[in-house]
Amino acid sequence: MSKDTFDPTKYNHSNNEPFAAVMERELSRRCILRAGVGMAAVGMLSGIGLTGCSNTENDENLTTPKVELGFDSISGAKLDAVVVPKGYNAQVLAPWGTPLNDFAQEWQADGSNTALDQANSLGMHHDGMHYFPLHGSSTDGLLCINHEYIDQQALHPIGPTKDSNSLRTIIDEVRKEINAHGVTVVRIKQTNGIWSLVKNDSHNRRFTGATTMDISGPVANKTLLETPFSPGGDKVRGTLNNCGNGYTPWGTYLTCEENWPGYFVNTGTQTEDQLRIGIDDKNTRYGWDDLAGNVDEVADEFSRFDITIKGASATDDYRNEANGHGYIVEIDPYDNQSSAVKRTALGRFRHEGCVYGNVAEGQPIVFYSGHDSRFEYIYKFVSDALWDPADAERIDRLTVGEKYMDQGTLYVARFDDNGMGAWLPLTMAAATKDQDVLADHFANLAEIILNTAGAADLVGATPMDRPEWAAVDPVNGAVYMTLTNNTKRTTETNAANPRLNNSTGHIIRWQEGDDAGQFSWDIFVFGAAEDGTAEVNRSGLEALNQFASPDGLAFDARGIMWIQTDNGAPELTEYTNDQMLAVVPSQLTTDSGDLEAINSENQAELRRFFVGPNGAEVTGLAFSPTQTDLFLNIQHPKNWPYSNDAAMETPSNQSVRPRAATVIIRKHDGGEIGV
Ligand code: FEO
Ligand code: CA
Ligand code: CA
Ligand code: CA
Predict the structure, then answer these.
(1) CA-CA distances (angstroms) from residue 331 to 149, 371, 499?
(2) Against a cut of 0.90, is the pTM above it?
(3) Whose CA, among 290, 327, 561, 647, lies 20 to 30 Å from 511?
């Protein structure tokens, strides 16, 4: 997300600051999380948590596989081009507007494509992404791509058409905007090192801001979802502001609804959950509701964004429409007849991403997800069902999703200042910090989920510096989460968010404890400019790895962690555009085998691998199974792409209509990426 879509309002008024200002240095003051316990131990979800300091006596026979970065850190850059290390190339694939089938005409550089074209083409502002191989192939697969939001200026020939009152007037423009949101599933193939999109493949499909979807879990009931469009309350329309992503061990894609509140308006009396999440009382982000009641409106396609109570009952207005948004949405990319399903048990908030913890037979499936707003929280969901490896092979994937994602317990994180933390359940019986229980505040679990952040306030969760993506180390199960920045932290810090005016962000890490309610944590790295003060540049970063605003985050199968940035702080933007760095956290250990954070001694192990073009954020990350192809997304570039070669600079005397695009990075020799 760029600053164009981030909502800077602070909606958390709970004053949850459960710890006094603890300003001890996180990096040196205590022994921390345990290092790699070897691939053999991957999946021992509850067996690897530490409950204190060094505890390596059981690890003697376990080894961590050696992965070494095989490229030199590259310099920052400020070009209308991407930059990759020597020996690599970068290809542009599937930019916004590329037709998926013959129902769309080719993308027009003058912005004149129609809403129908857009419904059958790649959406705008690519974000989270995953590669799903067909038959295990690294040269033939399905790419699922989130489209977070739109640039109205670039989408239309000369921006959005409005009347003298600034109201939208052209139906096809608004439909085009709605269709530019959502998710793309597209088949891609690689031949001789070049990837191409397979037009008209039967897997190709779009989920847009208007696609009818299913909804399941606690909120799926008529009382909360009934609308004139769905009197039974069993269908919802559209997925919006699809930011980070996830995928599941059973082969489905997860898309995360982030800044969805801005698409709705309630000009009447707001409910508690609407106030807490930040639904506006005046306007919607793009004015789609301006066309409500237009003679050509179909099935209240624009009216539904106005959720003000206007009629006698829920079938007379769209008071419940927003209740169908704010979720993790599951998509089966392999089955082109399947519906997307909104999994409400994982909570309703501004979901950034969704990643599962290491998986083990007979253990629950765990998902982590952050709420990206200032002073918001980190959540995990633990399934009731225990993992059966046979479920990974089933082809009724959404039925498997129902098994693991519809029943379970949602928790929110409290980071204590001794390096330990508590996962606080959000259940009716859960104790609040005021010594009552959530059942004293909510009628049922559905209401807790609808106002997830409000429930988290009550139990005393720790307000964080904008939680974004999480990633799980395949070597040892440690979970990492980016906290992108928080310049509004002006008075009080807590141990997990220890810097005032945190303009450069940090990455926190934890390991699960002996039961689902505890964990241990430390801060892995602090973003900073190399010339930052000691208070700011706590990880000792230097020119070749200075970064700010970590956002996208993922491990590849070998244990390399990739960090992507969005909106580098002013301290950094003089030096470089947004970027992607790599590090192998499981290799950074103390002599006694504890995991180490980045510090001035080992900082050179954090290396810059990629720099994006001017104006863009670097986001979305996927790998082919052979690790020879790295897919990432360039969102909101300024004057790019100029050619299919992502590294070819747009000539300074030319201006192109900017297009978000996937970039595929390969080695010239086709070898593994990063090593
Ligand atoms: Fe859409 Fe939080 O970035
Ligand atoms: Ca984004
Ligand atoms: Ca961001
Ligand atoms: Ca993001």
Answers:
(1) 19, 21, 39
(2) yes
(3) 327
